[in-house]
Amino acid sequence: MVSDEKQDEAAYLVLINDEEQYSLWPAHLAVPTGWTVVSEGTHAQCSQYVDRVWTDMRPLSLRKDMEQRAKQGSPQ
Known about the structure:
Blueprint: H1 4-9, E1 12-17, E2 22-26, E3 35-41, H2 43-53, H3 60-72
Antiparallel strand pairs: 1-2, 1-3
């Protein structure tokens, strides 16, 4: 198990997928298919980045569907 102190100094990536969902990923691992790197830093820096930018946890497809239904006046 990695100590908190060592983990905080390790390099991490912030990934985003097509649904605009975010993930913290160890920088030494290959980026999984379907994910794109949007930031990098320590675990704490990456976590702060995600907290700042990921303000709506709903997947993009759900947000679009709900927006479409609202425009049509359909109940959600």
